[in-house]
Records
---
Amino acid sequence: GENVEQHPSTLSVQEGDSAVIKCTYSDSASNYFPWYKQELGKGPQLIIDIRSNVGEKKDQRIAVTLNKTAKHFSLHITETQPEDSAVYFCAGEGGNTPLVFGKGTRLSVIA
Amino acid sequence: DAGVIQSPRHEVTEMGQEVTLRCKPISGHNSLFWYRQTMMRGLELLIYFNNNVPIDDSGMPEDRFSAKMPNASFSTLKIQPSEPRDSAVYFCASSLIGPEQYFGPGTRLTVT
């Protein structure tokens, strides 16, 4: 089955800097890769996703890139703000199997 | 639009007691997922339903855990008897046709 590894587990950046979180997956059949943001006391919220027929996708300050050959994908947050502080999860899904999540990255944006 | 609704938001119970967690998926969604989140193990999929039918319950840790989905708008996760190691945050998520899942706010369970 699918295995998703996520790095780093914690990340601190200065406000205004960029943050990058990386994930690798094992199942070459996986074709859907979402990213979730979880704020304290809340459920994970889908913020952006990418499918295997696309190499990059952007939505304002966040972007996701996918390298199917290397089986890795990354989340990029530019011009970070304090409200970006949260735990971020990547996930992979292939075919008829449900999402498999990474262990999460705790992002702290220091004002 | 109302998102996924879970109740209760917090539950504190004593070891050995029965616990029932409830979930109302987003209206029209046909898949429902139960997850458990702990610091040690992260987000674990316990069971999921498609059109009210359980598809995969291989993530259910023990026979003490059971889940039902009697109709398209309601699901329960029951733990009987509960143990301290069941303490965690339990999430319900739902999806429509595609793989995008939408999570509820979670139930924080504490078993003393």
Note: The mean pLDDT of chain A is 94.
---
Amino acid sequence: AQSVTQLDSQVPVFEEAPVELRCNYSSSVSVYLFWYVQYPNQGLQLLLKYLSGSTLVKGINGFEAEFNKSQTSFHLRKPSVHISDTAEYFCAVSDLGPLAGGGNKLTFGTGTQLKVEL
Amino acid sequence: DAGVTQSPTHLIKTRGQQVTLRCSPKSGHDTVSWYQQALGQGPQFIFQYYEEEERQRGNFPDRFSGHQFPNYSSELNVNALLLGDSALYLCASSQDRGRWYEQYFGPGTRLTVT
């Protein structure tokens, strides 16, 4: 079984400051990892993904994340946040997909509320 | 190109009633997944449909059922509603081949059970 832990339920940060949102996962097999963002009253939008290859992945809106297999982590970072980054952020792991004989069910963490203040 | 659409946007039902939620996938997508997001929680996987059949199912009771139509759209049905079924229901679509790992989410249906 797969699981995702987001240790921080809320992260307050001042505008233009750097931020890191933490994510740890547990899985008995290789995984694919994702970060999604959810703005108020909206669905989820994919920020970035790790499938294979380089452990540092870049996404939209200036976000990046680093996959660390030994620490089973996939932390999200942004060097300088903006007020518009205020949202809920979800880390997720996926099954290996249809090519591996399965589906692509996502298992999500409980989310981290990023609040950017002036 | 329309993304994933869901209807209705909001719904209020009484305990014991039945509800049907609808989802139209993004153009070119053939796989539909449903998630339940309770207040303050992350989305939880309900089930996934591909080729009009349920391919994967999460830990949800049989009161939750679904259907996929030949045009790839999907319905989620919940019978005998409980107060605990109040949540945001999200539909996500993807391709079974190609970029299968990219799931596009709709805006959700907010279900309130009183």
Note: The mean pLDDT of chain B is 95.
